[in-house]
Description:
The protein has 287 residues and is α+β, with helices and mostly antiparallel strands. The protein has ten helices and twelve strands. The protein has two domains: 224 residues, no CATH class; 43 residues, no CATH class.
Amino acid sequence: MRSVLRLFYLLRIIRSLRLLNLNLHFHTLALDGIYVVQEGGQVAFRPVPPASDAEVARVTERIFRRIGKLLERRGLGPRSNHDESDTLLHNQPLLAELYSASITGRVATGPRAGRRVTKVGDGIDLEYLAVPASPRCASVSGFSVHANVCIPAHKRLRLECLCRYAGRPPVATERLSLLPDGRLLYRLKRRWRDGTRHVIFEPLELIEKLAALVPPPRFNLVRYHGVLAPSAGWRPLVIPESESSDPLPHPNCPARKQFLSPDNKNAQKRSCRPRNYSWAELMRRVF
């Protein structure tokens, strides 16, 4: 795909790798350009200049206003009565308590309920705190947008690393260790600005943090939009064809035998797949 991808950070509940708390933001991969129709019905990619700092600031301000109006309409604004409008608090009070504690970095259950998560560090480094503002970044009343990560065209390895970062799992097990007293130490990937390098959990505290990171049932964490959406009319024209000639490698799969039968004319097409995937194929695509 002859295009440039840029990573935008917006707002969504996503599984965090930092303090294992709920961090509300989006990871969005967007095309740095548009597709246009040429003569003959072919589509071509036209890149656009990168966004300026002022444009990112306007987007951040618009997000702040729209999210505020959305919360007000749903009765979750600062002037609303949350006890009456919060259905989660009525239906799942324990889960609501875990969410609230996870967002604020506190402990929800056990003898340390209400206290902050135990942090271990070496104090504040004043030079480390003096971090200059990054380009194409803006913050408005706690809402921030970071749009300065760009992947050039044909850099497939860098694109793969970026996608892996956006879809990373909730816990990096290689940074989790057991202390002699039975507590669990989680090493941060980078030191925080206040000097924190590790956080320590009681076993029950770690379980409650992980429970708050489990997504609700039937909730899609990955979504496609624009020309890359599943039902987009131009999607077959802009995505690359699969290089695999055998999409169903399992030898005893009934769908594979039907797909590769001599009477099946569609088997000659490289990108053609059967209507219903086998269970093994679905498991491979998901995991």
